[in-house]
Amino acid sequence: MSFLRTVREDLQAARGHDPAARSDVENAIVYSGLHAIWAHRVAHRMWAVPALRGPARILSQFTRFLTGIEIHPGATIGRRFFIDHGMGVVIGETAEVGDDVMLYHGVTLGGRSLAKEKRHPTLGNRVTVGAGAKILGPVVVGDDSAVGANAVVTRDVPPDSIATGIPATIRLRKQHEPLVDPTSYIDPAMYI
């Protein structure tokens, strides 16, 4: 997929997730979440070349300095990913993020060990993570799930579930509750 097409998809995701989004031009200029994602996409390609891992880390740290969002270049990020507000987001090296995922500010996709193998979370497709949530360790958050604001998740979350609290309690989404729609605004407070 071309970088330009990816940028267009990211801009579309911003419009779909943020009711304050006005135009693609304005969003491209002012949205730090988009800047962090685009820099990560470049750094991730660099990370695939062993000789460029040092420069990839430098790019990711410079982006962190500019945006307040830290995404390790080794992390795998899917299509149409959106970070709303962004400040304080941390995504670890072995994290995997599916398509149409939305994170709010202060989210951590972190590790719980110093092991070299998989130590960060995997988020499925169409997952929404509320402000301040911490998802720690090599856990899996299933497709179409939501993690509430300030939740601390340390175990797997099945598909179509909602995780809230510290430590997070997990329940299946009720039949009348809508699925996370990647084209509409989701208020994470609705899961508390």
What does this structure look like?
The protein contains 4 helices and 15 strands. With about 190 residues, it is α/β, with parallel strands linked by helices. It has a single domain (about 5-190), classed as 3 Solenoid (UDP N-Acetylglucosamine Acyltransferase, domain 1). The strands form 3 sheets. Strands 3-6-9-12-14-15 form a 6-stranded mixed β-sheet. The chain has a 5-stranded parallel β-sheet with strand order 1-4-7-10-13. Helix 3 packs antiparallel against helix 4 (about 55-65). It comes from Rhodococcus chondri. Pathway: Amino-acid biosynthesis; L-cysteine biosynthesis; L-cysteine from L-serine: step 1/2.
What are the defining features of this structure?
192 residues; alpha/beta; cysteine biosynthesis; five-stranded parallel β-sheet; 15 strands; six-stranded mixed β-sheet; globular; UDP N-Acetylglucosamine Acyltransferase, domain 1; single chain; 19% strand; transferase
Q: Could you give the order of the helices and strands?
A: HHHHEEEEEEEEEEEEEEE
CATH class: Mainly Beta
Report the major sheet: 6 strands, mixed
Please tell me how large the radius of gyration is: 16 Å
How much helix is in the residues? 25-40%
Give the neighbour order of strands across the main sheet. Answer: 3-6-9-12-14-15
Total helices: the number is 4
Number of strands: 15
Low-confidence stretches: none
The CATH topology annotation reads as UDP N-Acetylglucosamine Acyltransferase, domain 1
Report the mean per-residue pLDDT as an integer: 89
Report how far apart the termini are.
Answer: 38 Å
CATH architecture title: 3 Solenoid
**Rough outline:** globular
Catalytic activity: L-serine + acetyl-CoA = O-acetyl-L-serine + CoA
InterPro entries: Hexapep, Hexapep_transf_CS, LbH_SAT, Ser_AcTrfase_N_sf, Ser_O-AcTrfase, Serine_acetyltransferase, Trimer_LpxA-like_sf
Organism: Rhodococcus chondri
EC number: 2.3.1.30
